[in-house]
From TrEMBL:
Pathway it works in: Amino-acid biosynthesis; L-threonine biosynthesis; L-threonine from L-aspartate: step 3/5; Amino-acid biosynthesis; L-methionine biosynthesis via de novo pathway; L-homoserine from L-aspartate: step 3/3
High-level lineage: Bacteria, Pseudomonadati, Pseudomonadota, Gammaproteobacteria, Lysobacterales
Organism: Dyella lipolytica
EC numbers for this chain: 1.1.1.3
Keyword tags: Amino-acid biosynthesis, Methionine biosynthesis, NADP, Oxidoreductase, Threonine biosynthesis
Designated name of the protein: Homoserine dehydrogenase
Domain of life according to the entry: Bacteria
Cofactor(s) this protein cannot do without: a metal cation
Similarity-based family: Belongs to the homoserine dehydrogenase family.
Amino acid sequence: MDSCALPLIAELPHRLPPLQAASSRRRTLAIGLIGPGRVGSVLLAQLRAAQERLSREAGLELKLCGVAASRRMWLDCDDPELNARHDCAQTWRPTDLDQFAAYIRGEDQRHAMLIDCSASETVASQYPYWLASGLHVVTPNKVASSGPLSRWQSIRAASHHGGRFRYEATVCAGLPVVQTLRDLLDTGDQLLSVEGMFSGTLAWLCCQYDGKRPFSTLLREAHALGYTEPDPRDDLSGTDVARKLVILAREAGWPLSLQDVAVESLVPQHLAELPLESFMERLDELDEPMAERLALAHGEHGVLRHVASLDRDGHAQVRLHVLPSSHAFAHTRLTDNIVQFHTQRYRDNPLLVQGPGAGPEVTAAGVFADLLRIAESLEVRA
Ligand SMILES: NC(=O)C1=CN([C@@H]2O[C@H](COP(=O)(O)OP(=O)(O)OC[C@H]3O[C@@H](n4cnc5c(N)ncnc54)[C@H](O)[C@@H]3O)[C@@H](O)[C@H]2O)C=CC1
Ligand SMILES: N[C@@H](CC=O)C(=O)O
């Protein structure tokens, strides 16, 4: 090889210097995390791992002031070690979201953020009040952005005057989907339609399911890997994907609601209303109907793919398709999601976002990136 070639990576300086002198932009952000489950606990680990670097290189002090689960909450006033230990804090109180939010907000006009890593309606219903009180809110929870339109509008209104609201990880986990759409719209483009595969769980199941192992075994595995929703029926029923379509439509200013989406459910009626525990015990009842779907796909020399679409007239649908093996969606791997945006500018050839679309690591990273975007905009306070 030519000796004048580019230097080897090992010869390059270890890392580039931080762009900004950390000391001139020193800010502190108080954080309260709600929902230390699969995504929430990985996020806590990511925050802890980045804490020192962010302080040194970006002048950003992340201060974990509280963690709230469904029944218990931990506050750093009770447990001064919380910031270092996070999930193994010892002293707890019963969860009270009002008390939690007030504590994180503090009394000294500090920058404060609540991160909702639950899938809870109760938590989501508090966003308008939290935002109006100046708390920033970041979340992968889809319930608020796809729930009642009037609540969504109050969240948007509150976030224009109070705290900031970001929810990138609600659509395709860590992939830059909401921000991509936002950038298109903010620069004057117009959304015409969206199509793609928006479920990491169903993408993974469709790739793995070849009939050798029962569908229920694979679903249990997807659950254990943290790909599914807390209740996997939210994935199988198509509701989770319908929520993502609604979120994207609303981002583009289309007043879509869940009931406007035509959804094919893969959950047999008799399993739909069971308590979660009973459903998980009866997963093998999904095996026969899914084996029939697979046989149908094989009969047509195609593959099963879970596809969602939203057209320019607002028609939205979510269903399991048999696609020819030559189709672009047939070549995805593992939890890959694909989003195709057709816009005025990307009319002939859509703008594509593709990559892993589920799992605690990538989702937590998407939430973390939202936190950093808000932190970048915070003014320095004495
Ligand atoms: N797992 C993934 O790949 C992705 C997940 N998400 C979303 O992330 C969120 C979390 O998902 P997972 O971590 O998988 O769920 P999980 O079930 O593992 O964790 C949920 C946590 O929320 C807590 N919680 C429930 N109700 C609560 C309440 N009322 N108050 C306080 N805490 C409450 C639970 O105690 C638990 O700690 C969900 O909204 C999900 O839709 C979004 C994108 C990808
Ligand atoms: N359960 C969801 C997680 C991300 O939203 C999925 O499988 O896509």
